[in-house]
Specification:
Length: 334
Amino acid sequence: MTIGVGVIGTGVMGGDHALILASSVQGAVPVAISDVDANKAAAVAAAARVERIHADAHSLIGDPMVGAVLIAAPDATHEELVLACLSAGKPVLCEKPLSPTVEGCLRIVDAEIAIGKRLVQVGFMRRFDPGYVTMRSNLKSGRFGAPLLMHCIHRNANAPSWFNSAMLISNSAVHEIDIARWLLDSEFTAATVFRRRPTDPGALMDPQFIVLETRQGTLVDIEVFVNARYGYDVRAELVCENGTLALTPQSLVRIRSSGQEISRFAEDWRAHFSAAYRSQLQAWVDSIRTGVPVGASAWDGYAATATAAACGKALESGQATEVRLQACPDLYVS
């Protein structure tokens, strides 16, 4: 059985997903495209060899040729579109955030619980990155003892002009929030955010330094710096009782010549996590075929948004802020 996938949103991420589905994923093909920008939709459809283009996203979700839906539309549309997919009984992979608001995430969780099975996967692709997967398997082996600290770095070369200080957390550091929850298998209880104080009151508070505490007492720190200039740079290190686990440097080749050592950084997140994106899509398609959910659930999407919201409050107040989560429903307990 080949699954027909409809892709909603043909920006950077939607376009990439459509091309990966068309070229690198077994068991699925993109069969429909939707975007409010007709020219973008047509360009992506042509590149991915898709004939069906819908001007309206809801029309795509209702298309009988579409067996599953990938949402890469603007954040504000995610809740509405995911709920429409659930109403249609169609599996959906939604780019983060599941919803920009905690309340929106919970409405999706409630709708999925009412159905009685998991149909939603959230696009936290780092859970499929080979480096993070290896870190998790080593930690779970017990060889290194309990995790004590986790250090994270998230740097971008340049932030978009529309980025604001809160988005350093909600759009960037939220990836570290999710991957730390996944690696440590623990929820956060408190957040503190330290930020640079620019002389211009309207300037971007960049970089920021986030400290999170887990229920088990592990401390997680995140440096997020979206105008680091030199390239895209993601690092992580787990400090455990009996050793450390760290991602290896991302550069595949290091050049030594004329008294210098040179390594290159990826231009953006897509190049850095290209393997993770391919693995995520393949795992999603396989999960639809087997009925065994994989990746970040709707509940994980809620927890990430709620933790990011607590970090946002800490950024505004300058004080430690409690992270409050509802009790995890049985549907999401593995």
